[in-house]
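Technical note accompanying the year-one report. For the benefit of new consortium partners, we illustrate the data format agreed upon in the data management plan: each record pairs a sequence with a structure-token string. No post-processing was applied to the example shown here.
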Amino acid sequence: MNRDLITYTGPAIDDPEILAKLPTALTALLEQTNGFIQFKGGLHVRGACLAPAWHSLRDAWVGPNAFHRLYPEVEQDDIPFGEDCLGDQFLLREGEVWRLFCETGELESLELSFKKFMKEAADDPMEVLGFEALLEFQRDGGKLEPGQLLAASPPFCTEEAEDGVTVTAVGTEDRRRFLADYAAKLREGEDD
């Protein structure tokens, strides 16, 4: 991990109970640095802490707004260890990293272990994390603060997005709630 590219470091570990439930590689990383934001918002790895809620692995994994409660595709044992700048989630499922595309609720295996994912994200963040929207936001003078994600209008999964999108910084919890509601509406539309 290139510490020069870290723009936020989580607080001290105050949730050892959740830490004890994690795979060895993730535990080792969090014991070094209890979660962080890297690439000026391109990657957020959650920590074993109770607060702030947007950084808490417990909140994302077992809390009232846990991803398995918001997306039927996510299993209760999936560990939502991180997210990209737009709020798409990185989950650990049976030792493998999966990406949850939160606009649609689609889940895709990256066919990488946690260690391999972290190495590839460090070696080629643009390819692995895909933060073109973040670079455009930064070119326009924007800066993501800790606790913020980018919101795309219109959502990237729409036909209207082909004509371009506008991205703005919003609170992480607001973005996560919007994405979960949007994906739920898409699922309801598929059921009709």
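Partners are asked to follow this layout when depositing records. The longest strand covers residues 79-84.
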